[in-house]
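User: Structure tokens for this complex, please. No commentary.
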Amino acid sequence: MVQPLLDIAGLNVAFHTYGYRAHVLKDVSLTIPEGGRVALIGETGSGKSVTAKTILGTLPANAAVESGAVRFAGRDVLTLPEAERDAMKGTAFSIIMQDPLSSFNPVFRIGRHLDDVMRFADRRLGRASKEQERTRQIHAVLRKVQLSDPERICRAYPAQLSGGMRQRVLIALALLHQPRLLIADEPGTALDVTTQDEIMKLINRLVAENGLSLLMITHNLGVVRQMADDIYVMRHGEIVEHGALRTLFTAPRQDYTRQLVEAIPPLYGPQVTDQPPVATPPIVELAGVWKTFRERRLIGRGSAHDAVRDVSLSIRQGEIFGLAGESGSGKTTVARMIMGLIGPSAGTISVAGTALAGTVRSEAFRRLTQIVYQNPGTSLNPKRTVGQTLSVPLTFSGLERARHGERITRLLRQVDLAPHYVSKYPHELSGGQKQRVAIARALAANPKIIVLDEPTSALDVSVQKNVIALLQRLRDELGLTYLFISHDLSLMRNFCSRIAIMLKGEIVEEGEPKSVFAAPEHPYTRALIAAVPVMAEEEERMKPSVSLEERRRFLVDAVA
Amino acid sequence: MNTTYLDVLVRRMIGFAGVLFILSLMIFVLARVVPGDPARIALGPSATQAQVEAMRQEMGLDQPVIVQYADYLTGALQGDFGRSLISGKPVMPEIMALLPATLELVLVTLLIMIAVSVPLGVVTARYRNTWIDNTGRFFSIVGVTMPSFLFAILLQLVAANFIADWPLLGRVSHTLDLPPGPTGLLLVDSLLHGRGDVFVSALKHILFPALALAMAGIGQVTRITRSAMIEHQRRDHVLTLKSFGVPDRVIIFRYLLKLSSIAPLTIMGLEFASLIGNAFVVELVFSWGGFASYGLEAILQKDLNAVMAVVLVSGFFFIVANLVIDVALLVIDPRLRFKEAR
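Assistant:
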């Protein structure tokens, strides 16, 4: 048998904090053949990233490798002298970091990062490189990741580049020394779908063109289908299933894998759910609404930015209205105007029959609309118990103190949490439970409308499925109206009764999901749908087609 | 980008002008409210009532308060803060003569503060929760809690008993003739005129007063640098560099240090105010003969005109220091410059 490029055998890693030992990797074994593309999938906390860090040698100080071996081209990197191991970093294997927004030091130029990585890697290899030479090499690699103006990129500070551009620089960083193994830790998950799609295509092409091996770490099973041939499924620090792409997705042997696969909302095909259309009078109406943000300056011209342009829409009572679009398209601004948090620059908004003028947050209005935020980890106050969090809206809606307990118990029951959760702090809850508390908080004021601002994007797919089912049930029971903001189109396809697509502050398409997905009219909608990673080849074929010219026109980060 | 610098500068300056205006108003009202008639203070207890009345007229105290304030403000804008009630001499020239001494002391103090506390912050962060960190923490707390005059006396005792020929009082040995101008800062002037003897003497004189003055700030800035370093150590961008094998010392001294200097720098601006306050006492201990001891004298003798001038001048320098820091922050942190990009 040919020697594999990477061979992890019986790896056990534990974390020690305050005398406690947490066994995070349990007997993990994994092999990557030369030129192979392997995916490691699993949900938050399953141990994927710890595996990557063990290979790279960047485990935190409180982690200990208790047994096992990580053999790279036959040599166990865990037992190598430190200098030899360091010499492999960025040259034998390198990593594509996950979050392009936080992976650069904000007060240094991009070029500084690239040059330092290159210089010290050269030095470890015993080569003294000249600065000019390095700059030439860096520019060449930047062009390879399709950043056409490398000089400008190097001069820029991280904050001056878009997320997609920064992600490309992170890829360039990994390619500076042509490593043999590329470890990609959920690249692009922090970015928009279309950008993520372009990034995946780019990584795929670079891997193929340069004959690299790839270890893809991800929780997105749709991505895996495009990016890997061999798949390892990880759960609670263990590899629970391993198999080739085709057999694993179509015939998973383990229940857990099956659950993961089934939890993904389908984009096309017989499994798609159609929400019944709603024919009730509208509860929210926007007519010709504009919102312009201006920068105030004393000297020089402040820039003005139209966040929302001429948006007209109406949301019917009891509807689940989906507002789709990429970051910066104006979705959240529309939602904030409907909530009365900010006033429109022009146009009219009326909610439940009352016209909104400016930022009116009267008592009555406050009860009308509530919001569930994207990340329950940050939207709940860590210093307050669930009960304390829930009693705030209760007080505002004028409920007397004595009756809070009873109402909180009912709220918790409505979101499927046991009454004893009232005394728990957020850190004692899982992500899904926290989001349930956030939903209960929104319900507390007896609202008619709830704004759901990407309520499941911070959650794992299996949890997402339950939260969505809960939201659906609550709508039916309480007769709520939802404004669902998201960029997850496959979720919206199944959950919304009507959707609108926003691009640069304008609504470019609107209709029932069934018809929008079957025959998207606007090229941007087509591009957006085409970028969604799907689970099956049949779905892939049912996606609309987009011409290269259209992609270039509407997507900032299009790959040539 | 240039307009951003200018925009921030002009905004700050307008804000600071407002602060100075309010400060002048408050100190003026205060000076008129405190018991004691300025005319009586100026003339002393033996003057007759008629003499005092005449003096009141001469000083404009018979005018409505608004007019008095307007007169005072126009004078102050032209650098005229009236005459000392005690000596009868104009206040401003005296302050201008004493100001360089205090300025020099404060600047050297700030230098010592940076030179000691930034490396100390880095080291205690690097060896967090070890004996090094704990020792650092202990001395930080000592530095913050002990009043600076205590340090001043302690250092003086050390110098007197253990270091031969170490100067205890004054700015420079008075056997030397001093170079004329241009800044009035001895360390700078002596270098400009190539006077090594004056430089060494001035340096010896200033070292202990500045050290005493710096103690409290060193404690604070060390702690802030340490927590900023620790905070940023956990960030993804450090992991990025580590994953590619960039050495720890480069990560710490290049990448983390610049990022971690933002917080202590902001504190420095506030520190400046307490420095001037503490200088009042430290100058006294070391017979420094600066602007601060002049202020103290003025307060004790109820020389209201001098007090007002001292308050406004130190307020002015506090504001200039903060302006400098704002610009420095703009240079260090590009994100402040690109805020319009969002």
